[in-house]
Structures are given as structure tokens and as C-alpha cells.
User: Fold Trehalase from Methyloligella halotolerans.
Amino acid sequence: MSERIEDYGLIGNMISAALVSREGSIDWLCMPRFDSPAVFASLLGTDENGFWKISPKGKTSKITRRYVPDTAVLETRFETATGCATVTDFMPLSDDPEKVDLVRMVEGVSGEVDMTMELALRFGYGESVPWVHHRDFGLHAVAGPDTVELHTTLPLEGRNMRTYGHFKVKKGESVPMTLSYHRTYQKPQFVPDRHECMLQTVNFWKNWVKRGHFDPIPEAWRDAVIRSMITLKLCTFTPTGGLVAAPTTSLPETLGGARNWDYRFCWLRDSSLTLYALLNGGYREEAEAWRTWLMRAVAGDPSQLQIMYGIAGERSLPEYELDWLSGYEKSAPVRVGNAAAKQTQLDVFGELLDMLHAARCAELQTEAEAWEVETVLLEHLEKNWQSLGRGIWEVRGDPHAFTHSRMMCWAAFDRAIESAERFNLKGPIDRWRKVRDKIHAEICEKGFDKELNSFVQYYGGKTLDAALLLMPQLGFLPPDDPRVIGTIEAIEKTLLKDGFLLRYSTDHVDDGVGGREGAFLACSYWLADAYTLAGRRKDAEAMFERLLGIRNELGLLAEEYDTVAKRLVGNFPQAFSHLGLINSAYNLCERGGPAQQRAGKDGPPKDGRE
Assistant:
């Protein structure tokens, strides 16, 4: 497997996704869904845990990669002493979430290149070796309920529980291969012509990008924004509209450490930022699908509201460890599921109601029960907003009265009042207003430290939190308020490391996990947004450009950045990081961007063109 996370590219079909290394190896692939057990898991272990590699047999003098412009079709170009060949990887769109294809096409560019193919299928996150049969179309592999077929004309040889192929490709020649998944109890699907399939896939992505509204973005940043928007689309589970935080699990926040989590789920706290990104980008259909997913997921008793759900709205996300996987660069344990789903985190109430207010302002398709759901949620929050929780960062230590969580409770009531007054909706507005004002006063009294001249992470504490940068964006206080200015300055002094922002100091906070982590990239974008709102445009642009500089050669970002090792860390690619890039880019446009829209409580534009 490749040594660095940034060595990977992402392909997908909005049902599943795969990571492809610079050397032409697919080291991570879950089938048939994002959250299914992986059939290739060498990313988190060794070659024995499954991979699929296509590369030149001999020495490669140069490797270059790119996406076909405005698509999710990945090209890897191998140059050797005898010629040049490309491997094109993509996943065709599928109407059936239980039938997934992955296509790899080898094409000769010049001369002649001696190529090898090596396939090691391992079901169940790299644990189970399937029963493999050779067929006239290639091979057929079965392990319990799962079946994978390799469709190829190559002569294949089986050795040591792996499949090998050897071939030569000359200029103008093409060798296609398709890995096709279906449930064992279902009939295998027809494998269409690969060249026609690639043309359809390329056309889909190009037409999808054309739907977007990228004109306000400066030309120098436009490709980065488009690539980030495509990445968000790739992280969307089309059948439900849910957006996974990342298509991977357990890529470490610190190399060799234990801060390894499963991110193949949908977080409520991403809801507002997702909606603003999609609507400012002109993707109304995707925004409506996301909102619909949220309404389905949160339906039920408000006391049981979770911070995250599965891609179809599943509530049960039990966390366990895969002890047969050694972890990415020996970063164990490898975890599946996420126990944080059962934490008390009151900030999600504010995120949800903020998103629903924004959706109402943008005139997204309404659901009759949406307002009823909101009023029931507020009835519960009115009784429980003073409860302790574990905050936006899901600490596994002691619960606290986190300042950001209290602020989001304030936002929940504030947005409900705004919606009721603006859209003539019925509710106990006077009572809500009293609660809102009480929360505001309490935060200003207990969440602000006069000695530090800054708001602090939790009441009675002395530590800072990058999430406090969202105060002016939420409209809690204006950006020129001295307390906001002081908080920005204190965060710069305390959490800014080598030009990037930590979310909090793990040296001074017992978060119940231990160990250090990299700079959390979404927080650096929040700092850029805070600079923009405060009129520090040069600082905002400098931060934005710095963040653009750490993307990999394909334009992808992980969750965090290790400023010492100078490399990306954490799950990859990370939707939260790409949301930050998109929203910060629109914030830096001449017109008011998502931060200004959110602070003004007017919501995002209806079609991205206002």
C-alpha cells in the first residue's frame, strides 16, 4: 500500500467509493455501500487484507495523475523506458444500491508497456478469503452473502490465494476490466460495454458540474471549489440523500496513535454548512435531498435525537474493533461503528433548526410536519438546555457546559423565533424569546473569561475552542464586538500552529482519548471566515491560499494536517474539510457569502444566483 494518505485518489458512484493509490492499487473498497464491510482493506492492514493493483511490470520512470476535467473519472499515467500507458478508474452510476461495478481500463499511449494485474479479494474487512472459480468471463468469488465477479479477457492465474494477469499494451490498444458486485442470492447483472459506460459516466459528471453556479468564484480558485463540490457529491448516498463525513474508517489523526474513528455516517452538525454550500453552488436538488434525509432521520422522540445516523437513517451504530487489522501505519485500533452516536450533545438541536430555517428561507420543498417537529424539539430543549454534554468534538472524558453547545441552544430558539415571525408560523414565541435571551445572558456571563479577554471552551474552564469562531457567523454577537475580536486574537495566540488551527489543545484538555492530533482543517476555514466577517480580508485570503496548498495533487483534503510531518492525516477525503473550502471561497467573493447569509438569518440564495 502507499505510505501517505495524499497518495490516494477517490472514485465512486454515490453508493460506494474506492481509494486508488499512485501506484495503481485499490487499497480500500466497501461493497455494496459506503458502510458495508470492505472487500479491499490493505489500507488499514497489509496486502493480505485485500487489494487490486494494475501497474507496469518493470521500473516506472514517471507517474502522473489527474481527474478527467470536471468528473470523478481518475487517470493514472505510467511512463516507462519502453512506452507509456494510462489506467482509467471509475465507478458507473447504479440504479440498484446492491449491485455495484468498478471499471479499470488500461490504454496504450505510446510504445509498448508490459503490465501486470494482481487481485486479492478479502471479504469482511480483509478477514475472509472467498471461494474463487474461474469462468469464461474471468472469475467468480463467493463469501457467504457476497459475490464479486471479475470480467476480463486476460488469461488469469491463481497463486497463494491471489489472482494474477500479465499483458502488454501498445499505442491505441485498450484492455478493460470490470469488478462487479451482487448479493449471492441475486442474479448477476449484465456488464455493459466499458467504453460506452465511461462515456456515459464522463458526460454525467460534466453535465452535473454545468448545473453549478461557480461564476462568482475567482478563476484561480474555481477548480478547487468544483473538485470539492464533486467530492461532496461522491460522499452522498443517492438512494437516501445522506452525506457521509468520509468514505473511510480509522485513518489516524496522529500516526501511530489511537484517535481512529469510523466516519462513514451522517452527522447532524454538518447540516447547515452542507445546505449553504449546496445552495450557494446552485445544487438545489441535492440540498432538498439532504434536508429530506434529515427529516426522516430525526423523526421520533426528541429525547432520542442523535448526533449522527447511518446513511439510511439507522440509529444503531455499535462500535467495535477489528483486531486482525494492524491499522494504517500501525495505528491501531481499527474501529467500525461509532459510540459517539449515543452521546449527549445539545449543539445538534441548534444545527438542525438553523438548517431548517435556512431551507425555509431558500423555499425548499416543505414538509407539513417540519414545523411540528421543530416545536416538539424546542419543547424538549427548553427543559434540557442546561444539561451537561460532550460538545461538538465528542470528547470521551467528563461532560461539561460547553460554550459552543450553549450557543447552539441559543441558535435553536433564535431561528425558531425568526421562522415563526417571518413565515407566520404558530408557536409560543414570547416564551421562546425569554429562553433565548436567558441563554444569551448566561453565555456572556459564564462563557467569557475577562482575564483571557475571550470566550472559553466550557464554563469555568480556561481552555479555548476553535468552534467559538462561529459566534459572529451565527449572529450571536456582531463581528466587531470586542469580545469576538478578543476571542479571535486569543485563539490565534493559543491554537494557531505553523499557520493552521487546532480545534482545541489536547495538551490541556482531558478528552478521554489521549494523544495529540493534527490541525483540524475545517477550523482553519472557520478562522478564514471570521477574518472575512471582521474585515481582515488579507488574512482571510492568506489562510485560504495556505489551505489550498496542502491539498493533494488531485485536489483532495483529509480531516487534519500534521504540521510537523507535513502530511494529511485523518479520514480521507473529509467532507467537512471540503465544505469549509467551498463556503470560505463563496465568503471571499464580493457578494455576501454563506457566513454573511447565516449571520443575517436571511438564509442561502434560492438558486445560487442571487
Remarks:
- The first strand starts at residue 8 and ends at 12.
- The chain is about 30% helix and 20% strand.
